[in-house]
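I have a small job for you when you get a moment. Can you supply me with one protein entry, sequence and fold together? It will help me judge whether the discrete encoding reads sensibly. Write everything out right here, beneath this request:
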Amino acid sequence: MRPLRLLALLLVSAAALPAAGQAPQPPSTVAGVCGRTNWACVAECIDADCVDTCLREGCDRSLKRLKACTSKAECAPDDTQCAVKACGQTCEESFEPAPKSPEPRMENPCEGPQALQGAGVPKVLVGTWVLSAASLPDVEQGKEHRLEVQPRSDYARSLQVTPSGCFVLRTRLDSVTLGRGSMLDVRAWGTIELKDKKGLVLHTRDGQAVGPVCGKERVVPLSKGRFKGGEFTWLVEEKKSLILTVPGATRQTFQFEREKPGAPVPEPRP
């Protein structure tokens, strides 16, 4: 299903999304800084509007100040030390302090002896899927969906599904979002429940936000986050495209393309 065809199917009236859809309430933040509450919210997002909502209410204002500082200092996107040297205090004030006892990075929660086990899924669902398009319903009822035909590269999103029914939903926040020199790989993982031949539920169990922040590598546990999970109908077309649709009036839809083996990870935008 190509984006234009997807657009034709999505011109329906918008209404309030169900709890399992992509409509989170702005998370509460600690003293206007970005932290675990925001990352736990981001971890379950698929569309860009959802991520933007998770970063509002204080966090986005802190990030704007930080990005203005690193931009003025002409920090390179991949220079993790520039933000510390040129904007150290501003950077520290933008994020929650690192955990006193950081947990080890979970490389792949769907592999190894500790891997999560679901009920198993059809072979056609197994693989890594990269978001290629998403419908974004307008807030006001009666308006048509907008289509995110080319998802923002600063919110790179993918969904990994294993034969055992384990999933990892990944959102990459790069320097465009967090300020030059800071990047986070935000992941939520859990198990998949198949409701019938066309329905599935993502039961989120845990998550982490990992990457350099203010010049230091961080592993932020999201286990205390309030995960909502998500319910969708699913369809795989030609074994290449995965279509997830939120049940209900909005029929908000997400289109993923199967990742090719050995495909390079997109570089962060400057």
Summary: The two ends are 31 Å apart (CA to CA). Strands lie at 127-136, 146-148, 155-161, 166-173, 184-194, 199-213, 216-221, 230-237, 241-245, 253-258.
